[in-house]
């Protein structure tokens, strides 16, 4: 305690504190402004007729979107993306929610080991397990098909659902389940009539988070996708990778389409979830504001 | 919560608790698609196309464009992680109180995470490029006359790792900091501790486990850098990271055995770093791991 008091020396430290605060805000602003300008640069270029070394392009056009749409067959790619993402969300919920329920409610031997099994895919980077996984999927003739892509994307998605759902389930009073049991409900009926309605917000949050993460997940799709099972982010990678062949505006137009898709879902998601939930689990005991 | 669950336990656990079956699909899925491929890859890596069991590993450590990839990757991933965590900690500490700023900043910072590395790479190529707005700005105000080179080299990849990694580290640390009971800090400030003393004696010790976790996760992300190393770096030279080597082995030479070996080496290096970080944490702090919940 005396250390705490003695460190309050007043005057001479105050401007240092202020400088420190200013520096932090400055860095933060610089970071955000540059990211904003970066996105704006892509947007401007995608509408530019010709843009070489000036502040703004010579003229504006929407032709790049038309040509990008045809050149990259965006309609087919968007359909694949939607199919993959929704299949991943549905399957991740289907196997993740029951598992989260058991992990939240029961203690059993080997529970810690099981938790580790579900945490590992989130700790190991996708490339490390993606390459052996792609090898196995090629052997099973699943790689290159949309099924392989869905299976690969489920590996981080299912544990993420478990991680997000467990605290939501812990918040529900177990007496409600006991009451349902007393009235003779089977596990399945109890699940549908008690848990699913109460877990609505949690399930919504989990599915939106998985959705946003799956759209942006590059490595696993990249390693397992074939020519006709590419999602938008992988198609964008190939477009940038082979950029020399194509007009940069066309690639930027595709980047904008990708960004619009992601941002639209992100805005929907942010209405229901806290931004920090995208990277970590929710608080077990949310504190009143 | 636990006590209630335990009380409900004996009631429902007649001969066999069927609830336990609910975990089976998820567990089976993970075993089949995560554990099995991993073990398969491990076995495959000891079963090379030619040579003895360790041929892949000796090939990796004796080939000039393979073993240096470890250092190339570490040279990118460690500074990027240190920058991200080092910057995120003070900024998250400043924003620990709930305020409109916190909500706005977290919302804006989510964008780079969800946009993903590919879009960041494309944006950087446009914005930081030799004819981009940044170089125009610098030349217009005569801040820097030479041509800036921030793409297709080491710095491009490092910047993209910071852009995608900083928000991640920030949000993670923020969620740890806001999980610490503010009553502790209020008590300290009643006793005359200024924010800096509060940070050193209350927040930092309670944050140590979270910080170690955040460092590990941020490092793991940076270590597996792939798209930005290809698009923004010079994948043949100074940013030839280990994931590029693994990808080339698998999909350009179709040597899955060598590729699995590289993936295993990658996993091993990561494990060493993660173990080192957790070891440092244990040296620094031996309190309750979940600290701060009242």
Structure description:
The complex is a heterodimer of chains A (289) and B (294). Chain A has 289 residues and is mainly alpha-helical. Chain A is built from 12 helices and no strands. Chain A starts with a helix and ends in a 17-residue tail after the last helix. With 294 residues, chain B is an all-alpha fold. Chain B has a single domain (64-284), classed as MetI-like (MetI-like fold, Orthogonal Bundle). Chain B has helices spanning 2-12, 24-45, 55-62, 68-94, 100-127, 133-140, 154-177, 182-190, 195-223, 227-231, 242-251, 256-284. At the A-B interface, helix 1, helix 2, helix 4, helix 5 and helix 6 of A face helix 1, helix 2, helix 4, helix 5 and helix 6 of B.
Number of helical elements of chain A: 12
In quaternary terms, these chains amount to heterodimer
Q: Say how many strands of chain A there are.
A: 0
Supply the number of structural domains of chain B: 1
Helical fraction of chain A equals over 70%
Estimated radius of gyration of chain A: 24 Å
Low-pLDDT stretches of chain A are: 1-9, 282-289
Could you name the CATH topology of chain B? MetI-like fold
Measured between the Cα atoms of the first and last residue of chain A, the distance is 29 Å
Q: State the total count of DSSP E strands of chain B.
A: 0
């Amino acid at each position: 305690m005396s250390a705490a008091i003695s460190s309050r020396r007043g005057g001479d430290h105050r401007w240092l504190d202020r400088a420190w605060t200013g520096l932090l805000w400055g860095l933060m602003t610089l970071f955000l402004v540059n990211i904003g300008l970066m996105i704006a640069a892509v947007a401007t270029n995608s509408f530019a007729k010709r843009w070489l070394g000036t502040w703004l392009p010579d003229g504006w056009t929407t032709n790049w979107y038309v040509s990008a749409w045809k050149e990259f067959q965006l309609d087919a790619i968007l359909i694949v993306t939607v199919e993959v993402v929704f299949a991943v969300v549905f399957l991740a919920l289907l196997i993740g929610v029951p598992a989260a329920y058991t992990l939240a409610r029961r203690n059993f031997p080997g529970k810690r080991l099981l938790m580790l099994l579900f945490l590992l895919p989130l700790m190991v980077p996708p490339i490390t397990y993606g390459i052996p996984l792609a090898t196995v999927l090629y052997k099973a003739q699943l790689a290159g098909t949309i099924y392989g892509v869905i299976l690969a994307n489920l590996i981080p998605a299912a544990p993420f659902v478990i991680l997000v759902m467990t605290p939501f389930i812990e918040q529900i009073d177990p007496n409600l389940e006991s009451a349902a049991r007393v009235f003779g409900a089977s596990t399945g009926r109890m699940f549908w009539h008690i848990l699913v309605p109460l877990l609505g917000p949690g399930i919504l949050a989990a599915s939106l988070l998985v959705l946003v993460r799956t759209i942006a997940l590059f490595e696993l799709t990249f390693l397992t996708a074939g020519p006709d099972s590419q999602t938008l982010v992988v198609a964008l990678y190939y477009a940038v990778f082979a950029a020399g062949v194509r007009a940069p505006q066309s690639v930027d137009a595709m980047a904008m389409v990708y960004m619009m898709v992601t941002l639209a879902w992100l805005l929907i998601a942010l209405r229901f979830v806290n931004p920090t939930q995208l990277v970590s689990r929710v608080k077990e005991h949310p504190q009143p504001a | 919560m636990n006590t209630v669950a335990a009380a409900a336990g004996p009631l429902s656990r007649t001969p066999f608790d069927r609830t336990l079956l609910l975990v089976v699909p998820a567990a089976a899925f993970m075993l089949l698609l995560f554990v099995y491929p991993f073990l398969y890859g491990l076995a495959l890596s000891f079963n090379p196309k030619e040579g003895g069991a360790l041929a892949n590993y000796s090939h990796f450590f004796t080939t000039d464009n393979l073993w240096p990839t470890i250092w190339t990757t570490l040279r990118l991933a460690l500074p990027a992680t240190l920058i991200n965590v080092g910057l995120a900690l003070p900024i998250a500490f400043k924003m620990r109180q709930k305020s409109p700023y916190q909500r706005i900043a977290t919302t804006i910072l989510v964008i780079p995470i969800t946009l993903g590395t590919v879009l960041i790479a494309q944006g950087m190529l446009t914005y930081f490029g030799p004819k981009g707005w940044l170089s125009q700005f610098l030349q217009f105000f005569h801040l820097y006359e030479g041509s800036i080179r921030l793409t297709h080299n080491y710095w491009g990849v490092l910047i993209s790792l910071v852009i995608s990694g900083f928000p991640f580290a920030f949000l993670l640390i923020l969620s740890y900091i806001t999980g610490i009971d503010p009553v502790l800090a209020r008590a300290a400030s009643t006793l005359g501790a200024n924010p800096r003393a509060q940070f050193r004696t209350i927040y930092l010790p309670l944050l140590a486990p979270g910080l170690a976790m955040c460092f590990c996760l941020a490092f793991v992300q940076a270590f597996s850098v792939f798209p930005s190393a290809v698009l923004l770096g010079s994948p043949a030279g100074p940013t030839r990271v280990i994931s590029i080597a693994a990808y080339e082995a698998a999909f350009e030479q179709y040597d899955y055995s060598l590729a699995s070996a590289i993936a295993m080496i990658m996993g091993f290096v990561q494990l060493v770093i993660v173990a080192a970080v957790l070891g440092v944490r244990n040296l620094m702090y031996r309190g309750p791991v979940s600290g701060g919940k009242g």
